[in-house]
Amino acid sequence: MLTLYIHPLASFCHKVLIALYENQTPFESQVVDFSDPGSAAAHIERWPVGKIPVLHDSTVDRTIPETSVIIEYLQAYYPGPVKLLPDDSETLLQVRLWDRFYDLYVSQPMQKVVTDRIRPEGAGDPHGVAEARANLDQAYRMIETHIAGKTWAVGENFTMADCAALPALFFASTVQPLAADQLQLAAYLDRLLERPSIRRTIGEAQPYFSMFPYRDAMPQRLLEIGL
Ligand SMILES: N[C@@H](CCC(=O)N[C@@H](CS)C(=O)NCC(=O)O)C(=O)O
Fold it and tell me: Which CATH class is domain 89-195?
């Protein structure tokens, strides 16, 4: 039995939920509420770094943290019809590269911009936020070039890199809009948003959008997914 410790609004949790839904892997989810000291303490016990999501596999009493490792674990021990990590070693390198790219160069700067908005009065980091916005613009330019001629992040097959791309781009494109001429990137985001596993994941996050610090900036079409 697999248990995924998550929060339904958390973008890194979406990455793993998409992977689970792609392969219809049975699991149960448990919400970690960081505003509840008991729930937060139990999670620190599970994974002292304190990040979500974390997977627990009760059949072997094993705790697996870190989204990319969780997805590799699922493919190794609970494989399904959709191979999120290809066999071919060259394509696998590309999947790992773009998975890292979306996590480190899109999700992380996006989180910097978002969390700055909820810092206490006077504790903001305008320089860091400006840097994060510039990093996002640079990442968008790279994706625009890389994605041309591809259906998914590394080619014709949906992989772990796409699981990482969607939550990163979903929230990043709200806080730092794509440039008007980034048509390849916009079309890629549209394709992602049509994917059933993604519509389900975003649909489940939808009731929590009011907690998103940039809720006021969310485009109507993103608000309506899964409704
Ligand atoms: N590298 C981690 C990142 C996970 C992450 O940043 N999760 C966020 C939620 S989207 C989190 O736990 N935030 C709570 C915190 O930082 O206190 C992974 O891939 O699992």
Answer: mainly alpha
Residue whose Cα lies nearest atom 11 of ligand 1: it is 51
Axis-axis angle for helices 196-205, 11-22 (nearest 10): 140
Mutate to test the pocket of ligand 1, among 12, 171, 201 (most ligand atoms within 8 A of CB): 12
Predicted local confidence at residue 45, as pLDDT: 97
Length of the chain: 227
Q: What is the pLDDT of residues 190-210, one digit of tens each?
A: 999 999 999 999 999 999 999
Residue 65, exposed/middle/buried by CB under 10 A (0-12, 13-18, 19+)? middle
- DSSP-derived secondary structure for 30-86: EE--TTSHHHHHHHHHH-TT--S-EEEETTTTEEEESHHHHHHHHHHHS--SS-SS-
Query: Could you say which DSSP state residue 88 is in?
Result: S
Nearest to 5 by CA among 24, 33, 38: 33
- pTM for this model (two decimals): 0.98
Whether residue 227 is predicted with pLDDT greater than 70 in this model: the reply is no
